[in-house]
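User: quick one, sequence for these tokens?
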């Protein structure tokens, strides 16, 4: 088996130089780096991560904890984190929490048992005090898609209020002054912020959104068991009420597509009869018909940024930079919204 010393001897450099090339860290001249990398490729050298972990008392791993990795949104977090980890020859380990705080703690403990100090955590419902205690113990713990005031320098989050406002502003410019909102549970801070953003936008135009134009998931009770059933329930409920709406703002893309399906099933055309706008800009938003106008959530970029921040904190032994890490959304125009001016 080829060792780091074999590569160093062949390249005429020290083993530490080879290590810096492999890790992508430290100062190495361009010519030297290219020469060493060429020899690494030719000799087929692969770093022994277990041996390095024994020496450094830590593993070259990035841990990712999300509620459900099979969901496209959370898969995007894993994708972005892996891209950043690969740049420094780190590997990734992934865990699901199912949005259960106890399962989150178990997942984090499992990662730490493998020597992992770089952990990207998506925790919408974890207790802030518990998360603060964990952050004090784990040097590379970074939170994504949540803002915790006491841990602001470790939080990577999106301006959801601006996202809701952008969606509503876009609809208003297209002539939609009567809209409906279909969203999730009240405890979800993202949906509260987005709805507040929508209301801010309409208030700025001298308009209000009636309470009966807003459907939340818990209102469906036990009548629904999956996303499409909920979307069907929401559309039926809106159409049965004595209200006017020409467009629907959905909490996310999955919900928006479910609403379009339900509208089609009930004889309504999108966007000719009712327009629909989503949130996230997942890959499927381009592939459904009509293609979905949505608010772009830069989640891949945020996951890359979160991973680099975590690695900076552990590899450089530095505290999280004393600044906030807020990302902004943007509207992506496609075919699901009609201009009715």
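Assistant:
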């Amino acid at each position: 088996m080829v060792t780091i010393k074999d590569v160093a001897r062949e390249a005429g450099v020290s083993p530490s130089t080879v290590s810096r090339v492999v890790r992508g860290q430290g100062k190495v001249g361009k010519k030297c780096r290219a020469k060493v990398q060429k020899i690494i490729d030719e000799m087929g050298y692969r770093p022994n991560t277990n041996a390095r972990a024994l020496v450094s008392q830590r593993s070259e791993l990035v841990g990712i904890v999300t509620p459900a990795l099979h969901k496209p949104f959370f898969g995007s977090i894993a994708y972005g984190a892996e891209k950043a980890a690969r740049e420094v020859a780190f590997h990734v380990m992934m865990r699901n929490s199912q949005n259960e705080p106890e399962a989150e703690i178990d997942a984090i403990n499992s990662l730490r048992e493998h020597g992992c100090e770089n952990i990207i955590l998506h925790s919408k419902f974890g207790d802030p005090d518990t998360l603060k205690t964990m952050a004090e113990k784990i040097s590379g713990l970074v939170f994504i898609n949540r803002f915790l005031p006491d841990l602001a320098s470790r939080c990577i989050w999106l301006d959801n209020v601006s996202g809701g406002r952008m969606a509503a502003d876009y609809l208003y410019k297209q002539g939609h002054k009567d809209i409906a909102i279909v969203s999730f549970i009240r405890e979800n801070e993202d949906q509260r912020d987005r709805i507040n953003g929508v209301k801010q936008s309409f208030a700025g135009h001298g308009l209000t959104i009636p309470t009966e134009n807003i459907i939340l998931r818990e209102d469906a009770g036990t009548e629904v068991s999956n996303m499409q059933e909920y979307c069907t329930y929401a559309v039926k409920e809106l159409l049965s009420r004595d209200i006017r709406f020409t467009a629907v703002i959905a909490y996310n893309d999955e919900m928006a597509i479910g609403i379009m399906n339900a509208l089609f099933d009930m004889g309504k055309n999108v966007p000719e009869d009712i327009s629909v706008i989503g949130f996230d800009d997942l890959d499927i938003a381009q592939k459904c018909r009509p293609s979905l106008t949505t608010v772009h959530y830069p989640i891949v970029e945020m996951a890359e940024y979160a991973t680099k921040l975590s690695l900076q904190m552990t590899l450089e032994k530095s505290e999280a930079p004393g600044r906030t890490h807020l990302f902004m959304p943007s509207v992506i125009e496609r075919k699901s919204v009609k201009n009715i001016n």
